[in-house]
């Protein structure tokens, strides 16, 4: 190891400047001329570039420190640096000085920061993407140039196509830092982002307290993740929902009979286990429903396995654990697995692998209530079955009305993959399976 002090070079007429930003961290590898810190005097701000290539061992400055020529910025292990990469302190000092002079005539605080013409990090040598490629391409150059931000933040904003003039700075005196740019992009993506790309204006910010008392609660991590997934599915998948019903009178009689027999062993079979079985039988009959579009959207990947996702309602939000190889499992095994997965989900013990690899999802609100709903496809799957609460209804049998237990079904599907006729064929088949469970054995 060869440790070297990296010091502040000649910074022109400034005796003392304040560190306002640290652009590197201990452990980072930097090249000659990569920016290390941003300093600011009452006249200008500038980035101090590295005079050496190497690995940062220890930072010696903090934000808010006053430093001057010769102050130690950091300790660097320069043992790996190549002769070619190294440049002299004199070159760096000259460069910094030039920058300082160029920025000095600027007047207002916001005009102090110079555009990112200097010290590009060698670790990212590629050309910046053009604004045309960016979703936030409408940069107002005048406003951008007046924004109060350091050269590296300007460069970062340009890479993302962000108009700095629209970003609110949270650092001292309203200076815009990298996090502010990231937050701006995140907000644009989650609120107006997809809408903006569809030409839809984002929701205006409303102060609801002007209308009455309010309380603000943060969304849970699961809420946010689910929100992202369902939003993406909703805007990218052309959904159609096919409604249907299944007469589950016989199925329920059998389930109750089995329930009584198995009660002593502590086994309970819920209607959902039968529905999983019926779905598998229908997926086998209509393989297109057990598929995903590939990333190009031009090929359909047909799956030969049957992993069924089950939406579980938890206090922290909705999760979808997966019953793997459900076609290989008995009704009792599926019932127990649903119960175990639901307990794990509510105890926040599900692993990411428990929620991966699903082929088709079932969202059952039957235990809660409701007559019908339109579930959102759990992409990259192409269909999802919504199950509502079964109800005893009078059904005409040809000669008279008969009381029958009817289960409402709602199948949402990706219309790019599944046509309406197939949607109806699938639910008809599913309904037949549930109405006469002997058919599932065949
Ligand atoms: N019709 C009438 N009763 C039903 C029914 C239906 N379709 N489905 C279940 N039930 C009954 C059960 O038989 C049980 O009654 P008993 O205790 O008297 O036998 C009761 O409702 C409760 O069932 P359950 O909900 O605990 O069990 P389940 O296997 O049906 O469902 C689970 C398990 C994990 C799917 C469920 O608890 C759950 O979380 N559902 C919510 C899913 C959700 O939020 N979906 C919306 C996502 S947005 O698309």
Explain what you see.
The structure is a single chain. The chain has 442 residues and is an alpha+beta fold. The chain folds into 3 domains: 3-112, OB fold (Dihydrolipoamide Acetyltransferase, E2P) (Beta Barrel), CATH 2.40.50.100; 141-198, Dihydrolipoamide Transferase (Irregular), CATH 4.10.320.10; 221-441, Chloramphenicol acetyltransferase-like domain (Chloramphenicol Acetyltransferase, 2-Layer Sandwich). Helix content is 29%, strand content 21%. The strands form 5 sheets. Strands 9, 12, 15, 16, 17, 18 and 19 form a 7-stranded mixed beta sheet that branches. A 4-stranded antiparallel beta sheet has the order 1-8-6-3, with no helix packed on it. A hairpin with a 6-residue loop joins strand 10 and strand 11 (300-302). The longest helix has 20 residues, at 178-197. The chain is elongated and about 100 Å long. The N and C termini lie far apart (73 Å). The model is unreliable at 83-136 (pLDDT under 50). Oxidized coenzyme A binds at residues 270-272, 310-313, 318, 338, 342, 363-367, 375, 387, 389-390, 407.
């Amino acid at each position: 190891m060869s440790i070297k002090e990296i010091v502040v070079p000649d910074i022109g007429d400034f005796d003392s400047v304040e560190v306002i930003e640290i652009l590197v961290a201990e452990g980072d590898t930097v090249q000659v001329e990569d920016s290390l810190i941003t300093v600011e005097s009452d006249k200008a701000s500038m980035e101090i570039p590295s005079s050496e290539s190497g690995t940062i061992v220890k930072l010696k400055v903090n934000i808010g420190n006053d430093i001057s020529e010769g102050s130690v910025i950091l300790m660097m292990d320069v043992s790996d640096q190549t002769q070619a990469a190294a440049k002299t302190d004199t070159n760096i000092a000259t460069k910094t000085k030039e920058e300082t002079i160029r920025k000095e005539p600027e007047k207002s605080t916001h005009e102090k920061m110079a555009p990112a013409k200097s010290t590009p990090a060698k670790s990212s040598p590629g050309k910046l993407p053009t604004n045309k490629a960016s979703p936030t391409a409408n940069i107002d150059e005048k406003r951008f140039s007046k924004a109060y931000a350091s050269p590296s933040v300007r460069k970062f904003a340009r890479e993302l196509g962000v108009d700095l003039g629209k970003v609110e700075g949270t650092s001292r005196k309203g200076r815009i830092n990298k996090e502010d740019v990231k937050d701006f992009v995140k907000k644009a993506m989650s609120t107006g982002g997809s809408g903006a790309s569809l030409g839809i204006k984002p929701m205006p910010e409303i102060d609801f307290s002007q209308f009455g008392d309010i309380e603000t609660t943060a969304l849970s991590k699961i809420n946010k993740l689910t929100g992202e997934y369902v939003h993406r599915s909703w805007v990218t998948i052309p959904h159609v929902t096919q409604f249907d019903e299944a007469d589950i009178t016989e199925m329920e009689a059998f389930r109750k009979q089995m329930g009584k027999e198995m009660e002593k062993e502590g086994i309970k079979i819920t209607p959902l286990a039968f529905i999983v079985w019926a779905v598998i039988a229908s997926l086998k009959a209509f393989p297109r429903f057990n598929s995903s579009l590939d990333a190009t959207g031009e090929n359909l990947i047909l799956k030969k396995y049957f992993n069924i996702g089950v939406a579980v309602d938890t206090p922290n939000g909705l999760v979808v654990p997966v019953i793997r190889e459900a076609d290989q499992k008995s009704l009792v095994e599926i019932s127990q697995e649903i119960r175990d997965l639901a307990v794990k989900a509510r105890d926040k013990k599900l692993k990411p692998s428990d929620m991966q690899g699903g082929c088709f999802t079932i969202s059952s609100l039957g235990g809660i209530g409701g007559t019908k709903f339109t579930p959102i496809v759990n992409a990259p799957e192409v269909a999802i079955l919504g199950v509502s609460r079964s109800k005893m209804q009078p059904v005409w049998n040809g000669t008279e009305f008969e009381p029958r237990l009817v289960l409402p079904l709602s199948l949402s599907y990706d219309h790019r993959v599944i046509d309406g006729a197939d949607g109806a064929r699938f639910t008809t088949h599913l309904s037949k399976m549930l109405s006469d469970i002997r058919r599932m054995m065949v």
